[in-house]
Amino acid sequence: MVRIPAAAQHIPDMAALSDADVVAHARTGDELAIRILVQRHNRRLFRTARAIVHDDAEAEDVVQATYVHAFTHLDRFRDEAQFTTWLTRIALNEALGRVRRRRPSVGLEEIDMTAEPRRGELLQFPTSLFVADPEAEFSRSETRRLLERAIDGLPDEFRAVFVLRDVEGMSTEEAASYLGIKPETAKTRLHRARKMMRGAIEKQLVGAFTQLFPFDGARCAAMADRVVRQLRDTRSNMILSTD
């Protein structure tokens, strides 16, 4: 068990160290080392947990429980493994355990049978993190919400594979290893998840097409004003020309 000493000894450039070196400091109860590791892995653990439990608040609980378990059992971590791999496995186990406790799980093989035996197509995501202006930021936020809603609509098993593979960028073999399934099963679920994602996004976009290029409210009123003014000017010119 890790004990946090009242005054741990830190080194100024610890944030520049590798996970393995920071873990060595965390084993001594160094609070700075623990904070650095938490900050480094928050995003991956939250995404992984969120893909399983399907709820932001519970995903945060899973991440917190993961860190508590990891830092109180660092003696079980073997240095030949990657720390991020070990953490992710703990998060997956915690999240899956919560899902199993709150409702019966669907038969995995039954779900896999619904996949079509066709090759999957890669779903393209915007990759640029640069935000040019507030309008671009709004567009990026809307795109993110669109994708998040589509991901939330995936069945649990498909969502987990999709997040690990296409959001976290793991290989199919890595994702399969984390989830305890065969690579072939992971590929099948990933193909199905991508197809469902495309369908969900298209459905949301179709509903939005009727809202494109709105021309109402003040813009509509202003156009009417301009037309009336122009007609008045035209009539005035016609009257003047006949005099």
Explain this structure.
The protein has 243 residues and is mostly helical. The chain contains ten helices and no strands. The protein has helices at residues 19-26, 31-53, 56-72, 83-102, 108-112, 134-152, 156-167, 172-179, 183-209, 217-242. α6 (134-152) packs across α9 (183-209). The longest helix is centred in the C-terminal third of the chain and has 27 residues, at 183-209. Mean pLDDT is 76; it is low at 4-8 and 105-131.
Question: What's the number of helices?
Answer: 10
Gyration radius, in Å: 27 Å
Going by helix content, strand content and strand pairing, the class is mainly alpha
Regions with little confidence, pLDDT below 50 for 5+ residues:
4-8, 105-131
Measured distance between first and last alpha carbons: 102 Å
The fraction of residues assigned to DSSP E strands is under 5%
Give a count of the beta strands, DSSP E runs of length 2 or more: 0
Question: What percentage of residues falls in helices of 4 or more residues?
Answer: 55-70%
Main sheet makeup: none
Shape descriptor: elongated
Task: Give the mean pLDDT.
Answer: 76
Helix/strand order, N-terminal first: HHHHHHHHHH
